[in-house]
Amino acid sequence: MTEPTLDPRLEADTLPVAELPLCQVRLMNDSRFPWLVLIPRRPAVSEVFELSEADQAQLWKEATALGRTMKEALEGDKLNLATLGNVVAQLHLHVIIRNHDDDAWPAPVWGHGQARPYAPDAQAAMRDQVLAQIAGLALD
Questions:
Q1: Are the C-beta atoms of 58 and 48 separated by less than 8 Å?
Q2: 96-140 pLDDT, tens per residue?
Q3: Which among 43, 73, 102, 103 is least buried, having the fewest CB atoms inside 10 angstroms?
Q4: Which positions fall inside the HIT domain (predicted)?
Q5: CA 124, CA 86: separation in Å to the nearest integer?
């Protein structure tokens, strides 16, 4: 499998966390929201329908399993899953845990205020939390 080049905007706005069978998992560098980005490791793909049926199923499996376990672990009120791609064409899926008292509730997180980058220790703690949740998933 050829590793696609990561879009520069995704690289600038997110932090690497882990590799799943299909997707690279990255943490959005905005401490206001528990926000992961799943990026399928497939070159030149901008839409879900451009993935094979098997990859579509795997993407959904990874997103919903990770979203469910993160929502439970972080006691979230809502799980948001979205592929937009209006600014970054490279296919990526947002996995965002929402809470009734978060900075944007009930509106979407996009375009709401300024991102607050993680402090190094908070970034490490969130990364460890995500890795702990991934360790318990059966994704193959």
A1: no
A2: 999 999 999 999 998 889 999 999 999 999 999 999 999 989 898
A3: 43
A4: 36-105
A5: 30
Tokens of 60: 């959904």
**Which domains does the chain show, CATH number per domain?**
8-135 (3.30.428.10)
C-alpha to C-alpha distance for 64 and 51, rounded to whole angstroms? 17
* pTM assigned to the model: 0.95
pLDDT tens digits, 34-84: 999 999 999 999 999 999 999 999 999 999 999 999 999 999 999 999 999
Q: Would you say how long the chain is, in residues? A: 140
Nearest C-alpha neighbor of 70 from the set 117, 9, 128, 124? 128
**For position 85, what pLDDT does the model report?**
85
Contacts of 84 (CB under 8 A, 6+ apart): 94, 110
Residues 65 and 36: beta-carbon distance below 8 Å: no
Radius of gyration of the chain (CA): 14
Residue with tokens 């879009």: 7
